[in-house]
Write a structure and sequence with these properties.
The protein is of the alpha/beta class. About 60% of the residues lie in helices and about 10% in strands. Keywords: Phosphoprotein.
Length: about 280
Amino acid sequence: MKMYIVEDDDNIINILERIIEDKNLGQIVGKSNDGKKGLEEILLLKPDIVLVDLLMPGMDGISLTRKVKALEPNIQYIMISQVSSKDMIAKAYESGIEYYISKPINAIEVETVIKKVKEKMNMKQKLDTIQSLFSEESNGHEIKSKEKEEIDNYIEGVKQVMRKIGVAGEVGSQDIIDIAKYLIETNQTTSNFTIKELCSRFTDNPKTMEQRIRRTATVGLINLANIGIEDNINEIFVEYSNGLYNFEQVKIEMDYIRGKTKKRGRVNIKKFLDGIVYYGKRL
């Protein structure tokens, strides 16, 4: 995993380098003390992860991230700052920075955050690989190699995720579990189906089932938005706001709750279902 550091304090850079190397967290391919130089080198080196200071001379971390994000959307960002303003951190999240390391630097926090970013990237890579494999095969034949006990464990993991985001008791929770179980048993993703096709496997009224699922997923979105307003570095918020939903939609919902907009956040059901299956298998 290639990493690049943009930080105006050489001592912080040295500390981060030691932690990353000692913990075997990745390979540092470059570093810079100002945003303008960092922008040029990041576009040239194309690292997987950029650790960027929020406040720097020349070009701040938020501006740098926005510029790079427009050209290299797959690069992940970790903000380094001692700024505690929630408004400032919210602006950083809006620019595409999803993870946060506070100053003074703590080795355990650095290791934990970098591992979370790597897990997120691995999840996306696995989902992309699965989708690619099944698009090449004919009609996604069912794969029944998993033992029942393993599948049951995965489904229990799905239920745990639903409890974490506060939707376990919602009317559409069983519908979500049914589809998750089917996807796990057949080793498929939602890319092989329309939502109507998936729901039709369980009911003669797929539209109603889809509406139940959407309402349930929307409750989870609202719950995460409220968590983010209270604490936008909360572990559940950071983990699931971009893993189950589009973070920009979570942010819109946060702004709606704050009274800043009349728009509501929207749910991508396919992303939600694929994400909940992925996290269910991890727990």
